[in-house]
Amino acid sequence: MYRRSLAALCLIATLANSIVHAEKRYGPGVTDTEILLGQTMPYSGPASVYGTYGLAQLAFFRMLNEHGGVNGRKIKLLSLDDGFSPPRAVEQIRKLVEQEQVLAIFSSFGTPTNTAIVKYLNLKKVPHLFVTSGAAEFADPKTYPWTMGWRVNYVSEGKAYARYLLQARPNARIAILYQHDDVGKDYIRGLRDGLGERADKMIVADASFEVTDPTVDSQIVTLKASGADTLFIFSSAKPAAQAIRKVWDVDWHPLHGDEAGWTRKVGWRHQRRVPEGSDRQSLAERFRPQRMARLHEAVLSGGRSDRPLQCLRVRYGADFGAGAQAVR
């Protein structure tokens, strides 16, 4: 009797497996020929410079599909505009999950927008992959098992900055300009943790701003008045560009570090004047006003840089990404 029951169960399992295989049933967003992913990006609003991320990803998947896709399946990415607004991000993510039936949310941008959707996606058990934010909450698999970040978190990055300062400039007087959200707060937490008992002595001033503020000029003036010789800017690209320009305008020359991708390459430079004709170029000399205006024109006007696409075209050809469009 036991052997017959076992044989029956094995037969049922085999038949069920054959039926499923024959009908080719997959989870949401997957067919024999396509895998459907979704994301939101700030194609409009105060962080629209980062919309380029989404356009570059759309271009990459288009290139991938033109080369056969992945194991015979094409990757389709639905990229919706959230305007860098948490409520709108929730609305768009619900549309992607409940109407479009995507397999996963891929690389959605922004700390406040991802914070707004992380609980919903984990309750729905929708993979929330390669989150474009370094906030510590997205590196917490115990609380959010369906969420996975991809970059170093802001707290760890802040600790790294602190280690550098303790070694290279242990008597630094630090001023901090930070975005008044989890991005800025996580960086400050990491910096303070890294400085340890010396944090209160070394950090002489800080000033915050909202991502929707039109300018950070008054904060820079206040921070300069503190007598700080080291400046951290923990912000997105547009405020960072504005801050760098204002630092120049008020003739302030601190050691400068920032996290924004647009200005990372000019971070950690000591801004001091150099003799005319010298081969040594400080940040202030390299970014004199007329050059600064040209370099940051797209950022300060709220436009988008096409630098990521340019980099991909250097590698994959001049026509890479032609025709890539986001769904607004």
Model description:
With 328 residues, the chain is of the alpha/beta class. It has two domains: 23-152 and 306-316, Rossmann fold (3-Layer(aba) Sandwich), CATH 3.40.50; 154-300, Response regulator (Rossmann fold). It has 13 helices and ten strands. It has helices spanning 2-23, 51-66, 86-99, 111-124, 154-168, 182-195, 199-202, 217-225, 237-249, 283-286, 289-295, 297-300, 307-316, and strands spanning 34-41, 74-81, 104-106, 128-131, 147-149, 174-179, 203-209, 230-234, 255-258, 269-270. The strands form two sheets. It has a five-stranded parallel beta sheet, sandwiched between helices. Strand 1 (34-41), helix 2 and strand 2 (74-81) form a beta-alpha-beta unit. The longest helix has 22 residues, at 2-23.
Could you name the CATH topology of the largest domain? Rossmann fold
Point out poorly predicted stretches.
1-20, 261-305
Please tell me the total number of domains: 2
Please, how many helices?
Answer: 13
Structural shape: elongated
Report the span from N to C terminus: 63 Å
Computed CA radius of gyration, to the nearest angstrom: 24 Å
Q: Write the element-wise H/E pattern from the N-terminal end onward.
A: HEHEHEHEEHEHHEHEHEEHHHH
- Structural class, please? alpha/beta
Examine the secondary-structure arrangement and name the CATH architecture of the largest domain: 3-Layer(aba) Sandwich
Mean pLDDT: 80
**Sheet with most strands: strand arrangement:** 2-1-3-4-5
Strand proportion, as a percent range, falls in 15-25%
Provide the CATH top-level class of the largest domain. Answer: Alpha Beta
Percentage of residues assigned to helices: 40-55%
Report the CATH superfamily of the largest domain. Response regulator
- Biggest sheet descriptor: 5 strands, parallel
Number of strands: 10
